[in-house]
Amino acid sequence: MENRIYDEKNDLWYEKQGDYFIPCLSLPEEENKPVGIWGQRHLRYIRQHKRVFYANLLTSCKLNSYLADVDAQSENLFCRLVKQLAEKEGITETLKAEDQMLWVQRMNAVRETATEIVNNDLICV
């Protein structure tokens, strides 16, 4: 008897392993895009709070590309917010030249504000 058979009812190949025929299944290849810190944070959130959504992305082989997209959107929003908030607060290069510690304090506050906005708008939704 053959080790592989084809079932026309469900269009699957089966391979004999021991006494049983096991379907020959494989997942499609997923693009391997780099996922940054924002994507990793979103992954942690959906693993804990949106398990069905996470399972659907994982089984459809779309998790990595989805996380890479979320990461790119979050990074763009973060950079744009930091620039806008720094302009709004009056944080300039002249301040950096005159009082570096004050500039660092104010930029850290701006970055923390931008981080919270990104977390609330894109990461934890």
Automatic annotation (TrEMBL):
It comes from the Bacteria. Pfam families: TnpV. This is TnpV protein.
